[in-house]
Amino acid sequence: MDTLESSARTTSQDSTSESVLLPTEMVDYVVDFLHDDMDSLRSCTLVSKQWLPAGSFHLFHCIRWPPCDDQWTWCATHPDTHCKCHLLDDSGTLDGILSLLTTCTRISVNVRSLLIKMEWYGPGAATFSRVTTPQQLSSVLILIPKLVTLEIYSLQFSTTHSVASLPKGCSIQTLRLESLAVDVDFRSLSIFLSHFPSIQTLQVWSTTPLQPSDTAASTAQTLPVHVQDLDISILSRDRTWFDFLSANLDMAALTSLSHYHSSHQDTRTAEYEAYIAAAHGFLRNCSNLRVLKWRSIPTPELRSHPSVCPTLDEIHFTFSSQHIYHAYWNSIAEFLNSRIASAATTAVVDFTYVLLVYSDFEDWNFAAYQNVFREEFGSLDWAALNSAFARLQYLRMEVRLHFSKARLWGETSPSGDVNQRAGPGVWLEQVEECRAATETFIRSRLSMESHQKLELCVSFHVRH
């Protein structure tokens, strides 16, 4: 009896004095599987001090401000969503976040991605209102030393000094600028980019032209940014953007260019001709361009670019529509046969066919869809397409059937994606039949030579 009691006391002492430590690599491996499960990650941080770093890395990996993904009007009409709009009622909320980043380095050192909006359509507001000042943006960047990705919406510069306070030498590698305000001028944006010498990916989406700077300020030089991947969406068709990019980027470092432009513009104006001339000059300076991505129809003026790009190897075409428009598909053949694309060996065609469904498929005619698809897709100039595909070494076609404003008779996930494990109804089978029939029909239109280098993927997607 005494021996058993002694053994029990010894075992108890051993268990309390020592805890079992797993290899750090094993802890990281386990926690990585929970990267998108916030509740489980919080539990992991409470296991022991050893589990705290791995859990914190995923918990604080991304910060958003404002914290809500949707406009307040959507949240107000969808009470089932986890709305955080109420945080904006307190004007000091962002200052509270800054204070937390200052006092808790465990959070700040783990932040890798920051999405911040300067303006937001806040609760109860009739128009966009300012939710972030340039000074607050500067403070956030100073407090996050290991930030890799920065997304800024509605960037504003009323004066040059508003960007001069930004920290120099940020380690940011990906910078996305969307919905730039109308008061952003050439010089202010140049100064802003000079604070991020390490960026490799730059995305600029703008609906407005850059405002001109005064002559004295414009002559001041900034060091070029060595961007490798550039994504530009210039809806204004204004040459100032190409002038700005040519002056501020190291064109020899650029290897991938993604471009979107609006096709609804009068091509007979002098402004449009200046835009095309600037675009031609920009492409001519891309001496090491390897990948070119079109997220719209390449205009005839751009397809007729007189120069050959000898380093261009891969071309992507991404577009979506509710009908099979000949102009979209004809532009693919024409661009692949153009001089600028003569060295390309790979093409990727990513097409989303948007299908509107209003009554949970009850009244939707699957047979009618197949007839319309065969008629529209079959009327394309497949001889020209196959001729353009023939000179390629590799061709990938991704056709996505997007059922919009629809719901299958079965459960769906919160994001709207179909949960096929939830026992979907008979309509899922018919949608799959449409997908298979679409793939078979496309293959029947491609030549044998195109088939030999083809990777075809036809999928479907259903959202509310």
Quick structural summary:
This is F-box domain-containing protein. By secondary structure, the protein is an alpha/beta fold. About 40% of the residues lie in helices and about 20% in strands.
Question: Layout of helices and strands, plus pairs?
Answer:
Layout: H1 2-17, H2 24-32, H3 38-45, H4 52-59, E1 62-65, H5 72-77, H6 93-103, H7 105-108, E2 113-117, E3 119-120, E4 129-130, H8 134-143, E5 149-153, H9 161-164, E6 174-178, H10 186-193, E7 201-206, H11 215-219, E8 229-234, H12 240-248, E9 256-260, H13 270-285, E10 291-294, H14 300-303, E11 314-321, H15 326-336, E12 346-356, H16 366-378, H17 382-390, E13 394-404, H18 426-445, H19 448-452, E14 454-462
Parallel strand pairs: 1-2, 2-5, 5-6, 6-7, 7-8, 8-9, 9-10, 10-11, 11-12, 12-13, 13-14
Antiparallel strand pairs: 3-4
Organism: Phanerochaete sordida
Protein name: F-box domain-containing protein
InterPro entries: LRR_dom_sf
